[in-house]
Amino acid sequence: MKIENKLSKLREIMKKENIDGYYINGTDPHNSENVCPRWKTRAFISDFTGSAGSVLVTSDKAYLWVDSRYYIQSDQQTKDSEFIVMKLEKDNTPTPTVFINQMFEKDSRIGFSKDTLMIDEKKQFQKDCKNVEIVVTEDFLNEVWEDRALIPENGVVEMDVNLTGFSRGQKLNMIRIYLGEKKADYAFIASLDDIAWTLSLRGSDIDYTPVFIAYLLVTKEKAYLFTSDKRFDKDLLEKVKKDVEIYPYEEVVSKLGEIIEKDKTLLINEKKVNTLFEKVIKDLNITIVDELEVTTRLKACKNETELDGMRRAHLLDGVAMVNFLATLDFDKGEYSELSLVDKIEVQRLRNKECLGLSFNTISGFKENGAICHYSVSEESSKVVKANGLLVLDSGGCYESGTTDITRTLLFGEASEEEIRDYTLVLKGHIALALQSFPQGTKGHHLDILARQFLWNYGQTYFHGTGHGVGHRLNVHEGPQKISQVVNDYPLQKGMVLSDEPGIYKEGRHGIRIENLIAVQNNVKTEFGQFLNFEILTICPYELRLIDIALLNDIELQYINSYHNWVYEELKDLVDKEALDYLKKATLRITK
Amino acid sequence: MKIENKLSKLREIMKKENIDGYYINGTDPHNSENVCPRWKTRAFISDFTGSAGSVLVTSDKAYLWVDSRYYIQSDQQTKDSEFIVMKLEKDNTPTPTVFINQMFEKDSRIGFSKDTLMIDEKKQFQKDCKNVEIVVTEDFLNEVWEDRALIPENGVVEMDVNLTGFSRGQKLNMIRIYLGEKKADYAFIASLDDIAWTLSLRGSDIDYTPVFIAYLLVTKEKAYLFTSDKRFDKDLLEKVKKDVEIYPYEEVVSKLGEIIEKDKTLLINEKKVNTLFEKVIKDLNITIVDELEVTTRLKACKNETELDGMRRAHLLDGVAMVNFLATLDFDKGEYSELSLVDKIEVQRLRNKECLGLSFNTISGFKENGAICHYSVSEESSKVVKANGLLVLDSGGCYESGTTDITRTLLFGEASEEEIRDYTLVLKGHIALALQSFPQGTKGHHLDILARQFLWNYGQTYFHGTGHGVGHRLNVHEGPQKISQVVNDYPLQKGMVLSDEPGIYKEGRHGIRIENLIAVQNNVKTEFGQFLNFEILTICPYELRLIDIALLNDIELQYINSYHNWVYEELKDLVDKEALDYLKKATLRITK
Q: Which of A64, A218, A517, B437 would bridge B441 by S-S if both were Cys, CB 3.0 to 4.6 A apart?
């Protein structure tokens, strides 16, 4: 169906329901970052396929808000439709709430689908848009979207306690201990990766995201999982039922009304729980404690078993990366961005422990590498050959853990500017990796370590330096984060993060270097407990892009000892034909 | 009067007024950091003379809260009284609000003196102490404190526009322009350094703080200053009256009631305006815009004239420091902490442009240097001679600006640990000084630069890295700050800050190195405008405490070029006898 037809159908419904503006936030009922086809509402209504953005449709206009990552892509994808692209952080573009409050007449009715509007988001709109009425509606797209996908019911698998460290029962008990500490009666969890982690189950409802659509209620004695029981094979169903009662996903609201007693206290994260639940909370006179899910904090700090799994996943991933790199002819070879995406995927999948990719591989050559979240397609795929830089950001989901690695590859010869930029990015990447820090340190304290050298050359990058990574789970996981934005959660032992500074020069080249790192205990002194990072990723940097003159002794020593470690870890595991490459790529460098 | 008698008198009044707890925050009606004798209430009631802390007196207990800077001092000063010292950030000590809310019976009445309780502080107590009633009272100490000092009326002087850059009229107009921008009718300013800056006047009501006790109201056409007109000589009074009407300090509340019209909008900073003003605000149905004073932001960004003045003050201060250092015999000399305080003061006051000290000199030898805010007294003053480190933190108030410098001096020989620690502190000090950063960067982003090397050795310091400094005004000035604590105000061109990392090893030694630095424009690139620091302080570091092996080339180059600059700036200005010292202290070092 054409965009104009979709919009016109939507506007008919809006008119019938007396709605002046319909807001589509593009998420699912669990406020997931990635969503399954049923909730790709933003893409359905606007053709814009980016991972973030919001849509507002009025009786005669259609707006799409995007951030700087998607300025170019959104222009391209909306060029034949009536969508007006609102570029945030540019030309004083108002945010959706400011826009809605200013542009609508007083008491206009702005509609939001009840199952994808989070309680917190609703409050935010109500606070910021005092001029208008926030109306929680049915999902109007149901009537517009003829062949809309159903809620998926893909099979789930169990992760053995050998891989998770704690059993399902132990993790449910951790939640119950926390209920006691908080003097609360129930924890209601809507966040999909939290549910998967708690229950040691993994699904495949969403691409690259091994979760399954469900809700979880934990009481002091019991646990209730709301999801289709068709997902389980018979044995697993029996096993899981020992720890949780299972009810259909669609019955969650009515069932909560039966299970939860009046006047009790409920832990929820209002950023992740949608307005479907408001009525039952109100009817039961529930006291809400609105905070980050306790499971999000527990999950963030990987236990020793999970860390061992992450280490194994990174070993296998290093083998795949080096086998891949060794097949490339960087001087005379000719590839395409897409063919390289296929090649690295093939190498990862050679190992049966690799269950798939952890995200859509980014492969951007020359000026495409300067597009920070570039998504290569048949149309955009450039020829890759001498001379130029390729940003290759990829990862695998392994049985034992998740990987995410970026290497910047050099085809042919590099310019002086490219070598200097690579070295500055690498220096920042190293400074963060080597830093020790006292307990209580937060991501926003550390972030500058990765930027300092670029800043001294008048350069910077407009993304965070590090995101949290899940254990055989989402490649983006909170609350840990290293960025300029204030983050309230201190870095703690066991947290896994990326260390990925970069530089993006529009129309010229992009560079990004990314390892995963895990927070570990360092020394304890008269000044308290210090932490530092263990490096998980095992893959050489590009020696031909390093200007040794810009390195100090500590950096030089780090590169040599990292490369020595990479060589020793991989030398007996990579293909025989890859050994020469590995040796050369990890050669000792000196001033 | 003995503490027990004071407390017993206070308790009589509390009983009469039906007050269960009386809270003394130790500030003045303007929430000044330093206060004049009349408002040294904390010291009066408890004998504790530290610069921060709060007191709670109940019918049978007396509590004093202090932070880590004052753990030792507060113990000493309260050891003969009934005061219980509450050490914040230690042993889970509750903050005053938590303590008050938990320890009193429901609906207990907690009293606060109306003229020193800020509106914001009152709201905070009301929010955090829901269990009790917050009662705004008369100042009970008036009846206890027999010889209580009056409000000072010391003379004020005017700073010429040659020194301030902008005239009084221009600065008042800047406020009026801001009133227009904010669609507000009045700005009411209670902050004493803001008033002094706005009016280009300086006073001497508070030690080391060239302000005068006053309030200022700025309307769209007029300005009203509430202070004693006895402060002005005849000519100055005439001159100042062209810009502001002057009324007695005591009449401020009633006069505001006359000047301010009903239903208007008033800018105030509720952190600096006390509860005396609540009634008039309410009676007039005033709309309050509660925010940082616009003058605080204007004042923070020094103009070129002010910066030139700061540079001159630092030149004169460098001369004084080097003349002082040159007189010391670091090998065989014997001094006392106090005698060194006198010696550096004498050197500063030799220059007639030096009007006095900018704060009470800190002179701490060996283990006394490890007490972060050590205040030397006749009793505590240690003999200073070989071997040991002396932390000397001092500054002058010059006609053209304010200085604040710390140098760590070595008497005799240093231990390996002292040399390593000094070098690590210096490396951090240098890293911050040399950093370039994009517009929008905040102090909490930069702070780690000064800590990174210490952290890698399991060491840290428990104070901020940099505070703002005023122009011939307070040596502590906001909103700029470089610390781990989140600060919402980006660093901007013209801001002056200190760069003062340190290390404090209890019972052993302390080290601090401090220069003042000014934010200046650096390059503008495709990534935006970058800023960096100009160094203001002109005084050698201690070469004998530097381990050159720990320095990288950039640090080595910085030290040499800084020392070369120090030498060139000072060589024609210091005493002839000091030239040898200066030459030796600024010698080029190499690996």
A: B437
Break chain A down into helix, strand, coil percent, rounded to 5: 40, 25, 40
**Chain B contact present for A452, CB below 8 A:** yes
Q: CA of B454, closest CA in chain A: separation in Å?
A: 9
Question: Per-residue confidence of chain A (591 residues) as pLDDT tens digits?
Answer: 899 999 999 999 999 999 999 999 999 999 999 999 999 999 999 999 988 999 999 999 999 999 887 888 899 899 999 999 999 988 889 999 999 999 999 999 999 999 999 999 999 999 999 999 999 999 999 999 999 999 999 999 999 999 999 999 999 999 999 999 999 999 999 999 999 999 999 999 999 999 999 999 999 999 999 999 999 999 999 999 999 999 999 999 999 999 999 999 999 999 999 999 999 999 999 999 999 999 999 999 999 999 999 999 999 999 999 999 999 999 999 999 999 999 999 999 999 999 999 999 999 999 999 987 788 888 889 999 999 999 999 999 999 999 999 999 999 999 999 999 999 999 999 999 999 999 999 999 999 999 999 999 999 999 999 999 999 999 999 999 999 999 999 999 999 999 999 999 999 999 999 999 999 999 999 999 999 999 999 999 999 999 999 999 999 999 999 999 999 999 999 999 999 999 999 999 999
| CB proximity list for A154: less than 8 A, separation 6 or greater | A203, A204, A205, A212, A231
Cα–Cα distance between A310 and A300 in angstroms, integer?
A: 13
Q: How far apart are CA A139 and CA A113, in angstroms?
A: 5
Cβ contacts of A433 within 8 Å, gap of 6 or more: A499, A515, A517, A533, A535, A558
pTM of structure: 0.94
Identify the H or E element spanning B177. Answer: helix B168-181
| B486 in reach of chain A (CB within 8 A) | yes
Compute the distance between CA of residue A116 and CA of residue A35 in angstroms, rounded to an integer: 11
Does the model's ipTM exceed the 0.90 cut? yes
CA gap B418, B544 in Å, rounded? 11
Across the interface, whether the CB atoms of B455 and A437 are under 8 A apart is answered yes
Distant-in-sequence, close-in-space partners of B584: CB < 8 Å, separation ≥ 6: none
C-alpha R_g of chain A: 25
3-class SS at A295?
helix
Q: What span, in angstroms and rounded, lies between the C-alpha atoms of B187 and B266?
A: 6
Of B437, B458, B552, the CB nearest to A436: B458
Closest partner CB to A435 (pick from B456, B459, B526): B456
- Amino acid making up residue A510: G
Minimal Cβ distance to B435: which of A452, A506, A528: A452
8 Å CB contact between A508 and A366: yes
- The residue count of chain B comes to 591
Residues in B closer than 8 angstroms to A449, CB to CB, are: 448, 452
How far is the alpha carbon of A508 from chain B, nearest alpha carbon, in Å? 13
**How many Å apart are CA A545 and CA A425, to the nearest integer?**
11
Do B223 and B147 meet the contact criterion of CB atoms below 8 Å apart? no
Amino acid at position A42, single letter? R
| Residue corresponding to tokens 């609000």 | B97
- CA–CA separation, A523 vs A437, rounded Å? 10
A154-to-A237, A399, A400, A407, B442 alpha-carbon distances in Å: 14, 18, 21, 34, 47
